[in-house]
Automatic annotation (TrEMBL):
Alphabetical list of SUPFAM superfamilies matching this protein: P-loop containing nucleoside triphosphate hydrolases
Single Gene Ontology BP annotation: L-amino acid transport
Protein name (database record): Branched-chain amino acid transport system ATP-binding protein
Keywords annotated in UniProt: Amino-acid transport, ATP-binding, Nucleotide-binding, Transport
InterPro entries xrefs: AAA+_ATPase, ABC_transporter-like_ATP-bd, ABC_transporter-like_CS, BCAA_Transport_ATP-bd_LivF, P-loop_NTPase
Protein family membership: Belongs to the ABC transporter superfamily.
The keyword Cell membrane appears for this protein: no
Gene Ontology molecular function, alphabetical: ATP binding; ATP hydrolysis activity; branched-chain amino acid transmembrane transporter activity
Length: 254
């Protein structure tokens, strides 16, 4: 493991920014067969903030989100959402508890139109007022222009906007986003991350953002958590991490 330089190395594995914790991960350990993907991960995501989880491929970032949302069952540890232990909650219950997970890969339903894809995100809520769909279209004018198009005709950036919009229709308290910048042009990445910042600042949404694009993630995040080989290396204010040249070179690749 590379040695991190600078002041942040002393804070490895500890949250340094005060606030109201919405999501707490406590000693989380998860494995795929003999491979331990998470090894005692502890972190918090604060209400009304963006917490960015960073690290190289294989650091355990995606497994972390999949374990939090119930897609992977942990070997040990707990996941607590707003004081409730949800570690053993069924996957289908997570949305009702206020958590929306947008996995890597922009999973639209290709045969459905944009509008139909959005309505899938609200099915569990019953009848949803049209104003909520209009709000998503206001947030994402690009997909508003294509609401009657089939999802397979959308670009990568448009698909990412669609799956985020679909998740927002579930009215989550916390949004889990896995590599939303993957394969997108820098201009589209900036647009999507800027919108996340807007939702957090204006509406109090909480975001747990997993990203390999550390520079872009830290530019909008409040707190950064660096993973390496399934362990938390450091947790600190995003601006502090951005300024720590030694840590950036050792773990974040820029």
């Amino acid at each position: 493991m590379p040695e991190a330089h600078g002041s942040t190395a002393a804070s490895a594995g500890t949250a340094t920014v005060a606030g109201t914790s919405l999501l707490d991960v406590q000693g989380l350990t998860s494995s795929y067969g003999p491979v331990r993907a998470l090894d005692g991960v502890t972190l918090s995501a604060q209400a009304g903030r963006i917490t960015a989880v960073l690290g190289a491929n294989g650091a355990g970032k995606t497994t972390l989100l999949r374990t939090i949302s119930g897609l992977v069952r942990p070997d040990a540890g707990k996941v607590v959402l707003d004081g409730e232990d949800i570690t053993k909650a069924p996957v289908e219950a997570m949305v009702g508890k206020g958590m929306a997970h947008v996995p890597e890969g922009r999973g639209v339903i290709a045969e459905l139109t944009v509008d139909e894809n959005l309505r899938v995100g609200s099915l569990f809520r019953g009848k949803v007022p049209q104003s909520e769909f209009d709000r998503v279209y206001d947030l994402f004018p690009r997909i508003a222009e294509r609401r009657d198009n089939h999802a397979h005709t959308l670009s990568g950036g448009e698909r990412q906007m669609l799956v985020i919009g679909r998740a927002l229709l579930a009215q989550p308290r916390i949004l889990l986003l896995d590599e939303p910048s993957l394969g997108l042009a820098p201009r589209i990445v900036a647009q999507i991350f800027g919108l996340l910042r807007q939702l957090v600042d204006a509406e109090g949404l909480s975001v747990l953002l997993v990203e390999q694009n550390a520079r872009s993630a830290l530019s909008v995040a409040d707190v950064g958590v660096v993973l390496n080989l399934g362990k938390v290396v450091v947790t600190d204010d995003a601006r502090t991490l951005m300024a720590d040249e030694g840590l950036r070179h050792a773990y974040l690749g820029f």
